[in-house]
């Protein structure tokens, strides 16, 4: 069988008997897949470190669906700065956990791979740390997976008059709801609404407040997964 080469990000791995491992990869053009690597746990296997979680690699694969085997592997980008900064590393692990949990095996969504690489590269920049990259990742991942958050107008009546109505967040419908359509008194700050629109590329970077945005996104993702992501409890230490 001929081996074909792909760009991939290593999401996780498990040990098998002998010195084999099964890797979960997010592959450009294929989506989330499993692939076996034979003999990688033998001493001096160079391939082992190239296949570390969070590496962006070029990988040769043979076979179909459940029986894919890794034939060769080359490092494209190791995100070495990110991996030496604990806060950034926690955020990166959170990204791959939610990608891993929200995407089924063999599901291919155009854009998740690019979004993940883009946000990991941003985290990998030496001088940069901005928690908004986390919210940017969350809101765009939700959008690609079909769970777009509606923040432009009320999910019930489509009113978007932010000057005369108060808005709260409706988790069942995944968007903001106005005071005429809901009994909630948990009104969002205008700066929160601005921040959602900023992350969506609709507003400039001014008068923004991300605390509520962060809470809403984390809660919303937790409700989609039926549990809070495990890596979350390490994020805010
Ligand atoms: Zn309404």
Question: In words, what does this structure look like?
Answer:
This protein is an alpha+beta fold and 237 residues long. The protein has two domains: 4-77, Beta Barrel (OB fold (Dihydrolipoamide Acetyltransferase, E2P)); 130-229, no CATH class. It is built from eight helices and seven strands, in the order βββαββααααββααα. The protein has helices at 46-50, 80-83, 86-102, 112-124, 132-144, 190-199, 211-225, 232-235, and strands at residues 4-15, 21-27, 31-37, 56-62, 69-77, 167-170, 175-178. The strands form two sheets. Strands 3-2-1-4-5 form a five-stranded antiparallel β-sheet. α3 (86-102) packs antiparallel against α4 and α4 (112-124) packs antiparallel against α5 (132-144). The radius of gyration is 20 Å and the shape is elongated. The protein starts with a strand and ends with a helix. Bound molecules: zinc ion (ZN). The site of zinc ion has 8 residues, from β7.
Outline the fold blueprint.
Layout: E1 4-15, E2 21-27, E3 31-37, H1 46-50, E4 56-62, E5 69-77, H2 80-83, H3 86-102, H4 112-124, H5 132-144, E6 167-170, E7 175-178, H6 190-199, H7 211-225, H8 232-235
Bound molecules: zinc ion.
Zinc ion binds next to strand 7.
Features:
8 helices, alpha+beta, OB fold (Dihydrolipoamide Acetyltransferase, E2P), binds zinc ion, 237 residues, two-stranded antiparallel sheet, five-stranded antiparallel beta sheet
């Amino acid at each position: 069988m001929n081996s074909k080469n792909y760009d991939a990000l290593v999401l996780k791995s498990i040990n098998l008997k002998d010195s084999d491992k099964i890797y979960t990869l997010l592959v450009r053009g294929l989506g989330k897949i499993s692939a076996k690597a034979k003999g990688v746990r033998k001493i001096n296997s160079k391939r082992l470190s190239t296949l570390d979680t969070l590496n962006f690699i070029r990988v040769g694969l043979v076979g179909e669906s459940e029986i894919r085997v890794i034939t060769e592997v080359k490092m494209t980008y190791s995100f070495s700065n990110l991996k030496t900064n604990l806060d950034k590393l926690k955020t990166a692990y959170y990204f791959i956990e939610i990608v891993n949990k929200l995407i089924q095996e063999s599901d291919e969504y155009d854009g998740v791979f690019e979004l993940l690489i883009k946000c990991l590269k941003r985290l990998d920049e030496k001088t940069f740390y901005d928690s908004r990259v986390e919210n940017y990742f969350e809101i765009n991942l939700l959008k690609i997976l079909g769970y777009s958050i509606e923040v432009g107008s009320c999910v019930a009546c489509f009113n978007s008059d932010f000057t005369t109505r108060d808005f709260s967040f409706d988790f069942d419908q995944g968007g903001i709801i106005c005071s005429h359509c809901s009994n909630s008194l948990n009104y969002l700050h205008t700066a929160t609404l601005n921040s959602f629109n900023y992350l969506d590329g609709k507003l400039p970077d001014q008068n923004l407040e991300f605390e509520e945005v962060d809470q809403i996104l984390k809660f919303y993702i937790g409700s989609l997964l039926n549990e809070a992501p495990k890596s979350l409890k390490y994020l805010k230490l």
